[in-house]
Amino acid sequence: MDGTIPSWFYTLPSLVELHLSHNKFTGCIGEFQFQSLERIDLSVNELQGSIPSSIFELVNLTSFYLSSNNLSWVLETSKFEKLKNLNDLDLTNNMLSLTMSVQSNSMLPYIESIELSNNNISGILSWNMGNDTLRYLNLSYNSISGFEMLPWSSMETLDLHSNLLQGPLPTPPNSTSFFSISHNKLSGEISPLICKASSMKILDLSHNNFGGMLPHCLGNFSKDLSILNLRRNQFHGIIPQTFLKGNSIRTLDFNNNQLGGLVPRSLIICRELEVLDLGSNKINDTFPHWLGALPKLQVLVLRSNHFHGYIGFSKIKSPFTSLKIIDLAHNDFEGDLPEMYLRSLKAIMNVDEGNMTRKYMGNDYYQDSIMVTIKGLEFEFVKILNTFTSIDLSSNKFQGEIPECIGNLNFLRGLNLSHNDLRGHIPLSFRNLKMLESLDLSSNKLSGRIPQELTSLTFLAVLNLSQNHLTGFIPQGNQFGTFGNDSYYKNTGLCGFPLSKRCTTDEIPYPSQEIHVKIESGFVWKITLMGYGCGLVIGLSLGCLIFLSGKPEWLVWIIDKNIHKTIVRNKRSTRRRGARRS
Questions:
Q1: Helix %, strand %, coil % for the chain, to 5?
Q2: Cα distance between residue 258 and residue 232, in whole Å
Q3: Which residues are 89's β-sheet partners?
Q4: CA 266, CA 281: separation in Å to the nearest integer?
Q5: For the purposes of burial, counting CB atoms within 10 Å of the CB of 304, is it exposed (0-12), middle (13-18) or buried (19 or more)?
Q6: Which of 430, 421, 374 is nearest to 403 (CA)?
Q7: Which of 206, 271, 469, 474 has its CA 20 to 30 A from that of 365?
Q8: Residue 354: its pLDDT value, please?
Q9: Rounded Cα distance, 380 and 232, in Å
Q10: How far is residue 313 CA from its own chain's centroid?
Q11: What is the pTM of this model?
């Protein structure tokens, strides 16, 4: 429905509940003539103006929902004095500001839930309504700079993230199970008093300026703790070493701090762990093989630390079987790529996406995030879709050849092996990576041709093969027509589109000695690499023309080492026969 709210709604003497949410009502809310209303829901409309004064006279009102409108008004807490039966208040997603009353502690004696997120509330709040009853308070996405106190004795969910809070961390009530104060300007150390919140399930202190050492109790103060997010602060020292046996920890995010030491071996008892992000710290350790025994681990980020040594083999028979995202970039790992682990990534193999329920990692009120590097640029995924998969082993000291087994990871979407010392050819098995969207093999010592079969990767949007020793003709077709010069930079042996360097006859990929192509008429054509005198040149030119034009569409070139050797032998024998005839 649209238009203004019909005026007769305001005059119904026995109206108890008014539900008009998720419509397109515009204009202002009228004044109610009677006080029978107990529940009002006008959320998700296009209403404007202020909240009518008659609403604050509805002494029987228990629920009031006005979220997601265009209301602009200064809300005075003294207005709530008569709403003694109000349980739920939701004014989210408007343009309301707030002024506090000294007597607010005596108001709303039965209030349990207040949602005022995404408004224009600012300043230091001394509002303490619902001291004994308030269980849920959401003031996120405002401009609040501080609180005089957090006095609520029954608080369970306290969401203060994305404000302008400054100073030390306000200690949440001991009853709190969800506490998010991320994306503020808080500083100082974390008091061990926070460990008294023994019912805590989600603790998010990320994106602040906290420093100092982490309290030792932070890993074991609550058996129900599921999320611990300390990302983007300035903590130093070591990661808490003790975790409760039988804990519920699902996500540990310490990314972008200054934490050092070793990866805590006690993490092995975190059997519910799905996300472990230790990236961008100062951890000095070897690869934590033992994490491969965690049955639910899906995301492992160790990038930008001081990890070192050979990754080698694991004593675990099938390690990391649930892993979907692994980021070991910018460390000092060396030796061959960890083929044993790459063979064990069952969660990236033979996945039927059609039978998957697409959802974000996390729960209804908290989603995991991750940083991903594409062509040298970092992007933050504020939510991680459960179908996203990625392997980043870039900027290490890996040597040797790229294992063919990577081609078995046919659900892989991102692969970055750049800035290592890898040699040999690009594996033909990469043609099996049908879901691949980003491939970065740059800054290695790869040689040989770019496999024509890679043109079958129709989801490939980012390709970087620059600064290698690749040679020959750049494959054409499908996504390869969208890649620019920078994808092939500093491969002096490459030729063809999009480079300005044209290919000579010897650089064009050769077909097999004899290819049978059948047209609809049933006539069979034969392209053979044989001829008399200039016949060979004409044959090669014709083959090149057919290849470049992409016609006939049913022509398939087959290139491998054996075929190439056969062609070379045929060319030599042709030259010898031509010499004898002359």
A1: 20, 30, 55
A2: 10
A3: 64, 114
A4: 19
A5: buried
A6: 430
A7: 271
A8: 75
A9: 13
A10: 28
A11: 0.84
Cα torsion angle, 251, 255, 259, 260, sign? positive
Residues 265, 288: Cα–Cα separation, whole Å = 9
Q: How many CA atoms lie within 13 A of 119 on its CB side?
A: 27
Q: Hey, which residues does 348 pair with through a beta bridge?
A: none
72: tokens are 């602009």
| Spacing of C-alpha 186 from chain mean position | 26
DSSP class of residue 479 equals G
Strand-pair category, 377-381 with 524-528: unpaired
* Inter-residue contact 10 to 37 (CB < 8 Å): no
DSSP letter assigned to residue 129: T
Q: Measured between alpha carbons, how far is 74 from 462 in angstroms, rounded to an integer?
A: 50
Q: What is the pLDDT of residues 327-338, one digit of tens each?
A: 999 999 999 999
* Averaged pLDDT for residues 287-310: 97
Q: Is the pLDDT score of 370 beyond 90?
A: no
Task: Please give the Cα distance from 69 to 60 (Å, whole number).
Answer: 24
pLDDT band at 375 (very low <50, low <70, confident <90, very high): low
User: 380 pairs with which residues across the strands?
Assistant: 371
Q: How confident is the model at residue 507 (pLDDT cuts 50, 70, 90)?
A: low
Place of tokens 């046996």: 245
Is-cis flag, bond preceding 552, omega within 30? yes
CB atoms within 10 A of CB 349: 15
pLDDT digits (tens, 9 = 90+) for 485-502: 999 999 999 999 999 999
Q: Say which residue the tokens 């709040």 belong to.
A: 125
Q: What is the pLDDT of residue 427?
A: 97
217 in Cβ contact with 243 (< 8 Å): no
DSSP letters for 58-97? -TT--EEE--SSEEEEEEEGGGGGG-TT--EEE--SSEEE
- The vertex-336 CA angle with 332 and 341, nearest 5°, equals 95
Round to whole Å and give the CA distance between 401 and 422.
Answer: 6
Report the alpha-carbon angle 198-200-201, nearest 5: 140
Q: Which residue has the tokens 């501080």?
A: 146
Q: Which residues contact 157 (CB under 8 A, 6 or more apart)?
A: 135, 136, 137, 138, 176, 177, 178, 365
Residue 460: per-residue pLDDT:
96
Looking at residue 355, what is its pLDDT?
77
